[in-house]
From TrEMBL:
Gene3D superfamilies: 3.30.450.40, Electron Transport, Fmn-binding Protein, Chain A (2.30.110.10). SUPFAM superfamilies: FMN-binding split barrel, GAF domain-like. InterPro entries: GAF (IPR003018), GAF-like_dom_sf (IPR029016), Split_barrel_FMN-bd (IPR012349). Residues 160-324 form the GAF domain. It comes from Azospira restricta. This is GAF domain-containing protein. SMART domains: GAF.
Length: 458
């Protein structure tokens, strides 16, 4: 029976370097080590192209090669017969291999030496097993299909974004044994991702941001493809990437006021999966582990499926929310809500400082939030301070020209979740409390002293 490529994906993890055999136009053979071989689909693999060497010259002259790979779990030895098709020098496959190569280079002390020039795509003509002793395959840590089914059933029971994100992270730990994870959503401009939920970190990092294209997370978002590495790689460390990005833009001083992105200090395996719905990027799921090679091809497949369900669910919740707001017909509070007495406030005034330049907000000198969430917060406290308004609806925020939300789907619900969690984490004397579908109350415990700093700093 012919061996299928899907059955030997463990051989393509890059744990044990493979060999590639080619021949020159005159028939002279050549054998070289192979840095990386990647599964593309059930009929194709991609090999890393790093140097213009003998192998490269041979494959351009005679497009056939044989590759030898070893399964790191069983020791099984496979030999693949390949035909060269093309080289990709950009795009998802290239970026995916570039990140993984950085991880391999770091793991082998070759950082700065390995540089990917292209991803050579080959058709697999045949696979043969080399005779020899092999170990029995270890049992999988969990049944991924069962985990996927259980998670899907749990997510179906969630009626709002806040509970769904929390349940999603619980499912990752309970069914997939993934204990460190975060969900980031794409901002309105499509340029940055912000953390809206996390689990397994000392600090939640809710509100932290990373630019599209920076680090493992940013590259996964930019290329709309999963990025998985099995070894620690300094080049793609996202925390470092954030700081370098700020420094490049002359904003090194802003580092101290940024919310740090959560992350393991000794992350050994990382997997970033785009969250998409209807071919549109919604965000990124990021998981990591202190264990080398924690995430396999099968884990990647399962999390891509789960992230896809999350993306569709987020989209449906957004549409349902907007439809419900229109059906309810406006901003009139439900009967009884307006009659709720104002919460008594006491104590020293809370100084709320808002910078119009980037909508950043500080409470008594401590940084709270910025951007759209900062703009929302500033509108809420101004209405509370000027009109005594405590109750708000998503609909009125969506239409409020001070917040400047885009006309298309705007992730307003996610911004409110982010803002509410930041207020709780900062132990602020004001909170956002949900009072119904698309409605909430601003709970204030101390008098407010509002200070607005204009864009010119005055």
């Amino acid at each position: 029976m012919r061996i299928k490529l899907d059955a030997i994906r463990e051989c393509l993890e890059g744990v044990i370097p493979g060999n590639i055999a080619t021949r020159a136009a005159d028939g002279t053979p050549n054998i070289a080590y192979l840095s990386q071989a990647k599964y593309v689909d059930s009929e194709h693999v991609a090999l890393s192209y790093q140097f213009f060497n003998t192998t490269r010259r041979n494959i351009l002259a005679f497009p056939y090669a044989r590759v030898s790979l070893i399964n790191p779990l069983t020791g099984a030895h496979c030999r693949l017969s390949l035909r060269y098709l093309r080289t990709e020098e950009a795009g998802p496959l290239f970026e995916n291999m570039k990140v993984r190569l950085a991880g391999i280079a770091s793991h082998t002390g070759m950082s700065g030496v390995f540089r990917l020039l292209g991803a050579d795509v080959y058709r697999v003509l045949d696979i043969e097993q080399v005779p020899g002793y092999t170990l029995p395959a270890p049992p999988p840590p969990c049944n991924l299909l069962a985990a996927l089914r259980a998670s899907a059933e749990r997510l179906c029971g969630c009626g709002d974004l806040d509970s769904m994100l929390a349940e999603f992270l619980v499912c990752l730990e309970q069914f997939f044994d993934i204990r460190h994870a975060m969900v980031l959503l794409l901002d309105e401009a499509g340029e940055r991702l912000y953390t809206v939920a996390s689990r397994g970190y000392a600090e939640s990092g809710v509100g932290s941001e990373i630019a599209v294209g920076d680090g493992v997370i940013g590259v996964a978002a930019r290329e709309r493809t999963p990025i998985r590495i099995g070894h620690f790689t300094a080049e793609y460390s996202y925390g470092r990437a954030i700081r370098e990005s700020l420094t490049r833009r002359g904003l090194a001083g802003a580092v101290e006021t940024e919310i740090p992105l959560p992350g393991l200090p000794e992350s050994r395996s990382q997997l970033a999966v785009p969250i998409k719905a209807c071919q549109r990027l919604t965000g990124v799921l990021y998981v990591e582990s202190p264990q080398d090679l924690r995430f396999s091809y099968d884990d990647e497949d399962a999390l891509v499926a789960l992230a896809g369900q999350l993306g569709v669910a987020i989209r449906l919740l957004q549409q349902g929310q907007e439809g419900a707001e229109c059906a309810e017909g406006g901003d009139q509070p439900p009967v009884g809500e307006a009659a709720v007495p104002a919460v008594p406030v006491a104590g020293a005034p809370l100084r709320v400082r808002h910078y119009a330049e980037n909508d950043s907000v500080f409470l008594d000198g401590d940084y709270l939030i910025k951007g759209v969430a900062g703009s929302i917060f500033w509108a809420l406290v101004r209405d509370y301070d000027g009109k005594g308004q405590q109750h708000f609806s998503n609909r009125e925020l969506r239409l409020d020209p001070r917040i400047r939300l885009p006309d298309i789907s705007d992730n307003l619900e996610a911004r409110l979740i982010l803002l509410a969690r930041r207020l709780v984490e900062r132990a602020a004397p004001l909170r956002i409390e949900k009072t119904g579908r698309g409605r909430f109350r601003l709970h204030v415990e101390r008098p407010l002293s509002l200070v607005e700093i204009a864009g010119d700093g005055s």
